[in-house]
């Protein structure tokens, strides 16, 4: 069974390329369709906007200017709920990749791709799209608690400087939103904000992903490839999940930051880098300062300024505003009636510990909007209570009902899944990437399950 119910669209005129990507991705995602001609895009969109589009930038043979793909990208961005777009290009043309990112693509991949990299890029795009679906990317960081006022004032002070910033906090507290806010308030706002999940970069392609490579520099290097450092030139590079990087990768990143230059694999000359680095991790500080986990010299490069985003349970004053925001947002999105939140429900929600922080609150609001059956939202609508213990079934005559057995199995499975996920999260100390790896799931799939179980 697929890991996610996501709908992916591969838009590429080369049917062999599209087929190869479809075969690779359809084991993991619910629906993967292909299209070889952008002229037929409308009919696909009429049947439902995909979650992620893998978009070739050139369709007519011989064209390499990318204008056709960029026009499709512009069109997709005007949709009410635009898909995440990963630009595909056969030529590692840095200006074109940068243009695609500026126009809203969330990532780019050069063909021929590395399968692990393509899978990771789709997972990241899905996770990021669901994270940004709340509209918070445009409406900014919400919350007027003393803690959030402190975070916002730090952002305002550091944004205009070029200082590297490290954002610390548990999963789902809003670290990426903080990074985006820093970029938006900086002199680099007109250039690219490029997020890279450092925990998801395959070790084998780490260097070429970050620094690029030249055609022919190794067996699979059939064309030049731009790295993330080149693609974000002039803008902000957001190094997410930095605490999940292997030590070998940390050493390579440190060298680049110290020298302020990168050498693409196979190139004979280094290139100066012009990016502002914002990094983030959910590692607790004791682990971050453990040299066996994270190199102190790299930490020193990255944490010129540290912004700590407190967990939601330490800023409960923010809960009512966030609930109101996300309930209204999903009421509008799902065209559901506007309901009040029962005062007792609001109080219980404010008292909830919110282990998944704002992301979990957002999922809980979505669930409540979809499932609410009364005039006002009740606490049960948010799906936060632990499932009741499974009753020991009384002996039933064998022929009683197969349907009831099925329902019990389903319930036990649901409870078991929730417990397993909670145990993995506990073992991984809240580190989502690590927990996902322990469970054999992608990050995106784990996020979905967290939402389903209200964790
Ligand atoms: N202050 C906030 N106001 C509004 N929405 C928020 C706020 N903080 C977080 N969110 C929402 O919560 C979700 C998670 O935010 P974000 O991805 O920035 O968290 P994160 O700390 O980077 O998570 P992770 O560590 O898992 O990558 C997003 O949907 C985001 O829009």
UniProtKB/TrEMBL annotation:
Against CDD domains, the record matches this protein to: AAA
In terms of Gene3D superfamilies, this protein maps to:
1.10.8.60, 3.40.50.2300, Homeodomain-like (1.10.10.60), P-loop containing nucleotide triphosphate hydrolases (3.40.50.300)
| Annotated InterPro entries | AAA+_ATPase (IPR003593), AAA_lid_NorR (IPR058031), CheY-like_superfamily (IPR011006), Homeodomain-like_sf (IPR009057), HTH_Fis (IPR002197), P-loop_NTPase (IPR027417), Sig_transdc_resp-reg_receiver (IPR001789), Sigma_54_int (IPR002078)
Record keywords, A-Z: ATP-binding, Nucleotide-binding, Phosphoprotein, Transcription, Transcription regulation
Write down which residues bear the modification named 4-aspartylphosphate: 56
Domain of life, per the record?
Answer: Bacteria
Segment forming the signal sequence: none
What PROSITE patterns is this protein classified in?
Answer: RESPONSE_REGULATORY (PS50110), SIGMA54_INTERACT_4 (PS50045)
Specify the Response regulatory domain's residue ranges. 7-126
Q: Where is the Sigma-54 factor interaction domain?
A: 141-370
| Entry keyword annotation includes Nucleus | no
Q: What protein am I looking at?
A: Sigma-54 dependent transcriptional regulator
Native organism: Massilia norwichensis
Starting at the broadest rank, the lineage of the source organism is: Bacteria, Pseudomonadati, Pseudomonadota, Betaproteobacteria, Burkholderiales
């Amino acid at each position: 069974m697929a890991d996610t119910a996501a709908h992916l669209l591969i838009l590429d005129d080369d049917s062999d390329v599209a087929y190869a990507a479809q075969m690779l991705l359809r084991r993991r995602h619910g629906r993967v369709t292909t299209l070889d001609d952008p002229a037929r895009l409308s009919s696909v969109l009429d049947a439902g906007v995909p979650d992620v589009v893998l978009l070739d930038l050139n369709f007519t043979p011989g064209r390499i200017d990318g204008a056709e793909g960029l026009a499709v990208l512009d069109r997709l961005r005007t949709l009410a709920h635009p898909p995440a777009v990963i630009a595909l290009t056969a030529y590692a043309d840095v200006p074109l990749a940068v243009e695609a990112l500026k126009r809203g693509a969330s990532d780019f991949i050069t063909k021929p791709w590395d399968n692990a990299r393509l899978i990771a890029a789709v997972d990241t795009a899905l996770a990021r799209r669901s994270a940004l679906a709340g509209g918070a990317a445009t409406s900014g960081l919400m919350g007027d608690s003393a803690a959030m006022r402190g975070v916002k004032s730090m952002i305002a002070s550091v944004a205009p400087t070029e200082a590297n910033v490290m954002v610390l906090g548990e999963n789902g507290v809003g670290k990426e939103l903080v990074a985006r806010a820093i970029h938006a308030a900086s002199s680099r706002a007109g250039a690219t904000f490029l997020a890279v999940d450092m925990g998801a970069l395959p070790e084998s392609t780490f260097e070429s992903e970050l620094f690029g490579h030249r055609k022919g520099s190794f067996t699979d290097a059939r064309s030049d490839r731009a790295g993330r450092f080149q693609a974000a030139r002039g803008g902000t590079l957001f190094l997410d999940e930095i605490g999940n990087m292997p030590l070998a990768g940390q050493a390579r990143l440190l060298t680049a930051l110290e020298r302020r230059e990168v050498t693409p694999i196979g190139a004979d000359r280094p290139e100066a880098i012009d990016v502002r680095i914002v990094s983030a991790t959910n590692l607790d500080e004791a682990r971050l300062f453990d040299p066996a986990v994270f190199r102190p010299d790299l930490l020193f490069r990255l944490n010129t300024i540290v912004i700590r985003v407190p967990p939601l349970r330490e800023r409960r004053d923010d809960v009512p505003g966030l609930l109101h925001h996300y309930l209204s947002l999903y009421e509008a999105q799902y065209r559901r009636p506007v309901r009040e939140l029962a005062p007792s429900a609001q109080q219980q929600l404010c008292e909830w510990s919110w282990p998944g922080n704002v992301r979990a609150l957002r999922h809980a609001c979505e669930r409540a909007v979809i499932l609410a059956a009364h005039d006002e939202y009740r606490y049960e609508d948010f799906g936060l209570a632990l499932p009741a213990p499974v009753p020991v079934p009384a002996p039933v005559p064998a022929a009683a009902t197969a349907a009831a057995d099925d329902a019990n199995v389903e319930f036990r499975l649901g409870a078991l899944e929730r417990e397993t996920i909670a145990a993995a999260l506990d073992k991984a100390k809240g580190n989502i990437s690590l927990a996902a790896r322990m469970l054999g799931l992608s990050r995106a799939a784990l996020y979905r399950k967290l939402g389903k179980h209200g964790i």
